[in-house]
What we know:
Layout: H1 9-14, H2 31-35, E1 41-45, H3 51-59, E2 64-68, H4 72-85, E3 90-93, E4 111-115, H5 133-142, E5 148-153, H6 156-169, E6 172-177, H7 192-199, E7 205-210
Parallel strand pairs: 1-2, 1-4, 2-3, 4-5
Antiparallel strand pairs: 5-7, 6-7
Amino acid sequence: xxxxxxxxxxxxxxxxxxxxxxxxxxxxxxxxxxxxxxxxxxxxxxxxxxxxxxxxxxxxxxxxxxxxxxxxxxxxxxxxxxxxxxxxxxxxxxxxxxxxxxxxxxxxxxxxxxxxxxxxxxxxxxxxxxxxxxxxxxxxxxxxxxxxxxxxxxxxxxxxxxxxxxxxxxxxxxxxxxxxxxxxxxxxxxxxxxxxxxxxxxxxxxxxxxxxxxxxx
Length: 217
C-alpha cells in the first residue's frame, strides 16, 4: 500500500512503545512475555493501514496479533486504529518480511496472513513477491511444523503464481476460494483494499496453505 508521506509519522510511532516495538530483535523468543500471556501469535505481513489486524484483534481477543509493514506512514495510520480501539492484543513492527527470522524464534508464530500483497507482475521482480520461495522459507523458520499461511488478493495472476509457488515448495493447499465473497465463508475481516475492490465488483481470491515438516519433504 503506497500512501503520501505523513508528517510526524516517525515521532507518532516512537511515542507509543506499548504498541510499536522499536527494537524487535530484542523480542525474539520473548513475544508472549511482551504480550503478558501465552496466547497464540498471528502475524500479518504487509498490514497497511491496519484494518484487517485491528478487526481480527477485536473479533479474537484470545489471539495476539502483530502487524508488519515497512512504510512509516501506513504503519502510523494502523497505530491510529489500534489506539482508537484500545487493543492490548496488537503490536506493530516496521521490518521487512524477508527478515522475520531475526525477530521470531522457531514456532513462536502460530499463523501468518498475507493480504493484497504487491503483485510485482514483471518476471524480473518475481523474487520480491511475498509468496516467492525464499519468503516461504523465511515463514517456515518461524512457524510450527504444520504452520499455516492464509492469503487473499484481487490479483488473479498473483493468486495463480502463489498456488504454484506454494505447491512447488511442498506446502499442502487446504482450501481455495476463487470468489470469496460469493462463497459461504464466515468470519471474513476485510482489509481497506478488499473493501475498495469488492465495491467495484472485483473478485477476491483466498487460500489456506499448510507447511509440511522438513523431515517429511
